[in-house]
């Protein structure tokens, strides 16, 4: 099922439009009906994130946990975007994440989505599928997203840093507002024990501990040796070198502008936010993020 992105027209960047109250671009809405009618199975696992929060990292961990021992060749021969299809990504005559997910031969099927919680196809709820949500502090998330929009030719143009900064606070990003995304998924965990809400910063602080928590959520008990192999295998430098995890096989991304595995750090925002921007951001953040239980760390 190899995907040939080289045929894709990347001569102009897409424009954002309002889609049911969320800023989106056509590649994520074109197949809306089919995606909404996706038939989830009870053992499917949905990996949900706001873009740039650590999706690839957690996807690689889960793939290793489930299939690292039984089918290691999967991990060395298929890029991450084929092992873990991106459900809503649709490029006519080229890619349909929904079709890829339908055809996944694995059990469980690991499926990626950046949908805000209200867009998740209903069968995932009906089947009580496990969902793993990864959230990252807004400042680092914004910086990572800025570089991504600079280097990924199928995303809207990033523009300059100052305008990107304003747009992020306004929620004028693909998949909408970071604030709404992390908050609405968080609220959903209060009523749905099938959602495991993780933080990028916790993963950086202690990857082994977070793998442990993931294992108890999904009910796997790998040996200490296996866990250690996984922890080492998914360290930033190792994933950055790993062609099947680092997106270097996707021609729509221009690695001369920025690599996909860029820095992998907490606190890189300090290299981009001016003092005035930081003050403006913090004041705006306080107005938008009212739940003290949903706490993000912008430095470790
Ligand atoms: S995407 O395009 O939304 O799927 O991107 P996503 O994978 O969610 O996020 C990419 C950022 O995650 C960082 N990353 C990692 N950090 C630490 N360790 C590991 N193993 C790792 N893998 C990916 C990646 O570098 C991006 O963050 P930035 O800050 O840009 O480096």
UniProtKB/TrEMBL annotation:
**Keywords of this entry:** Catecholamine metabolism, Cytoplasm, Transferase
Localized where?
Answer: Cytoplasm
Class of the enzyme per the UniProt entry, highest EC level: transferase
Any one Gene Ontology molecular-function term assigned to this protein's record: sulfotransferase activity
Every copy of the Sulfotransferase domain together lies at 42-291
> For this protein, what is the EC number?
2.8.2.-
Q: Which GO terms describe its biological process?
A: catecholamine metabolic process; xenobiotic metabolic process
| Record's keyword annotation contains Cytoplasm | yes
Pfam families (UniProt xref) = Sulfotransfer_1
Check the record and name the InterPro entries matching this protein: P-loop_NTPase, Sulfotransferase_dom
Primary localization: cytoplasm
The portions of this protein that span the membrane are: none
Cellular component, GO annotation: cytoplasm
Name the protein family.
Answer: Belongs to the sulfotransferase 1 family.
Protein name as catalogued: Sulfotransferase
Organism, per UniProt? Poecilia formosa (Amazon molly)
